[in-house]
Design brief:
Shape: globular
Strand content: under 5%
Organism: Rhodoblastus sphagnicola
Protein name: Tellurium resistance protein TerC
Radius of gyration: 20 Å
InterPro entries: Integral_membrane_TerC
Oligomer: single chain
Number of domains: 1
Number of helices: 10
Order of helices and strands: HHHHHHHHHH
GO cellular component, one term: membrane
Largest sheet: none
């Protein structure tokens, strides 16, 4: 029963993180392909969607291949904290589109993939961390990533990137970041007891992620005081 509960919890985490970290690549792709000739638009959408999926598959494969390398756990932890900041920024800035649309299909697709790269990296590292070594669950997360991309602009997804639900996402990302750091191979080479690291790293990571989101949201609401010289 405990194993089934842990698996169910991990599956819920994968779904939540996919929704929270779904990049805006699909929307960017849809907007960018409007600059293409009509005959190339469907081809651009299909190839672009395939590239976005392939980029996520490559990140997930690399994450599992490098999971046991010293330092990778700390890298994953830093990426998840970055993901908390990124999710707060998305809630702040809304959707982002390509600044310089192009009519060249290959150049346009490369620009879309490049813009989506940070989201792809954090999305798949979060899925890998939440899957806790279950390849089937990670594969499920990968399979869900493409429809989640399409849902990236949906109003209910936007609610996950704003208070109060963004705090839940930040807490989850920070907790997984702490678990990732505690599982790093470097920890075994230090005099620090592994049990101590496993007990304290997740809450420390959660606190750090919450702090990052708090500072980001505070900066959004900050307004400088008017210059007294212009009051008259």
């Amino acid at each position: 029963m405990d194993g089934n509960l842990a698996l169910t919890t991990a599956a819920i985490e994968v779904v939540w993180l996919n929704l929270l970290l779904a990049g805006d690549g699909a929307m960017v792709l849809a907007v960018a392909t409007r600059s293409l000739p009509h005959a190339q638009r469907r081809l651009g959408l299909n190839l672009g969607g395939l590239l976005l999926m392939v980029s996520r598959a490559a990140v997930l494969f690399a994450a599992f291949a490098c999971a046991d390398l010293p330092g990778f756990g700390f890298f994953g932890a830093a990426a998840l904290i970055f993901a908390a900041w990124l999710s707060a920024r998305r809630g702040e800035d809304g959707q982002v589109v390509l600044k310089s649309p192009t009519r060249a299909l290959s150049t346009l697709l490369l620009a879309v993939v490049a813009q989506d790269a940070p989201a792809a990296l954090t999305n798949m590292l979060a899925v890998q961390a939440a899957a806790q070594g279950h390849h089937v669950l990670a594969g499920l997360g990968l399979g869900m990533s493409l429809p989640m991309l399409a849902l990236g602009a949906a109003p209910f997804v936007g609610l996950l990137r704003k208070p109060p639900l963004i705090w839940v996402g930040a807490l989850l990302l920070g907790w997984l970041a702490g678990q990732s750091a505690a599982a790093d191979a470097f920890v075994a080479l230090t005099p620090m007891p592994p049990d101590l690291m496993r007990d304290f790293a997740p809450p420390i990571g959660a606190a750090l992620a919450l702090l990052v989101v708090y500072v980001t949201l505070r900066r959004r609401h900050f307004r400088p005081l008017p210059d007294e010289n212009h009051e008259q």
